Amino acid sequence: MKEKREEWAKKLWEKAREGWTARTDDLKYRANVSRPALKEEISKIESEKGVCIIEFGCGDGTETLELANYLNEKNITGEIIAYDPQSQLLEKTKNENKKIGKIQIRFETGDFEKFKEQITPSDILFSIYVLNDVADAQEYLLQTKELLKKGGKAIFQFVHPAFVEAMIKKKVAKLESSLSDIQTMTVQYPILEKQNYFYLPVFNRKEQTYKSLLEEIGFEIESIKELIPLQNSHSRKEVPIFYTSQKNIYFPEMNQIPSTMQITAHKK
Ligand SMILES: C[S@@+](CC[C@H](N)C(=O)[O-])C[C@H]1O[C@@H](n2cnc3c(N)ncnc32)[C@H](O)[C@@H]1O
């Protein structure tokens, strides 16, 4: 079943890559809603010796570069090692190793086991919209644990289960009945983009499942935040237009419910 789910997600991503790397309006959501919450967590880092941060599932590297710029503005020295199994996303955005101020960025792709051998466990790891993209969350969290030192902190952001439920109600998410052991669905990317719309795989789990998995695996949860666009943005103009271009429906009320969940936890 796990292999079947992974294969299905891989096929959807092959079709989605073009749209994903051409996103523009989604970046407004990131800038106003998810990125400030991540930066707030990262700003708590003690940085006298220089930081080493791992991004586990960096996609096309957009958030990696944003975070590197932020650390640079704060005059922090260090390294971000960003890994994603899909090398094609990085090829499309032409993101490769580079230095931004005093922050060295290293992108890695390919087999996880090989990646793991090349790195030293880190104090900080972040994971943005990956937990809802992995067919096997337990395996992903076990790997996360391997990438961290004892006491190391992980910050996970992922699509809020309540938002997924709302998308199902709006009929923007199509449940995959053949993959029914966890709530698995094809979801039209809900933010209106100038480019064509595209579909992503979503493996939705209950809020409690994420918490229990983390605790069973050996993490201690420090905080949980629910990000609601209308609470997190400064003005209505900054909130995204949640929309399905296929049916020409516009959902402003989606800005009033939590769309991202952020869990910060450390390895015990
Ligand atoms: C929705 S994208 C988010 C990408 C990026 N973090 C961002 O926010 O722009 C999900 C990413 O998770 C990656 N991914 C899927 N399975 C993974 C795994 N087992 N380990 C690490 N990354 C994975 C995918 O390749 C994809 O790039």
What layout of secondary structure does this protein have?
Layout: H1 2-21, H2 25-42, E1 51-56, H3 62-73, E2 78-84, H4 87-93, E3 98-100, E4 103-109, H5 112-118, E5 122-128, H6 137-146, E6 148-159, H7 161-169, E7 173-175, E8 183-188, E9 199-204, H8 207-217, E10 219-227, H9 229-232, E11 243-244, E12 249-250, E13 260-267
Parallel strand pairs: 1-2, 1-5, 2-4, 5-6
Antiparallel strand pairs: 3-4, 6-13, 7-8, 8-9, 10-13, 11-12
S-adenosylmethionine is lined by residues 56-59, 62-63, 84-86, 89, 128-130, 133-134, 140.
Walkthrough of the structure:
The protein has 268 residues and is an alpha/beta fold. It has a single domain (2-267), classed as Vaccinia Virus protein VP39 (Rossmann fold). It contains 9 helices and 13 strands. The protein has an 8-stranded mixed β-sheet with strand order 3-4-2-1-5-6-13-10, sandwiched between helices. Strands 7-8-9 form a 3-stranded antiparallel β-sheet. Strands 11-12 form a two-stranded antiparallel ribbon. α6 (137-146) crosses α8 (207-217). It is globular, with a radius of gyration of 18 Å. The two termini are 31 Å apart. The relative contact order is 0.18. The mean pLDDT is 88. The site of S-adenosylmethionine has 16 residues, from α3.
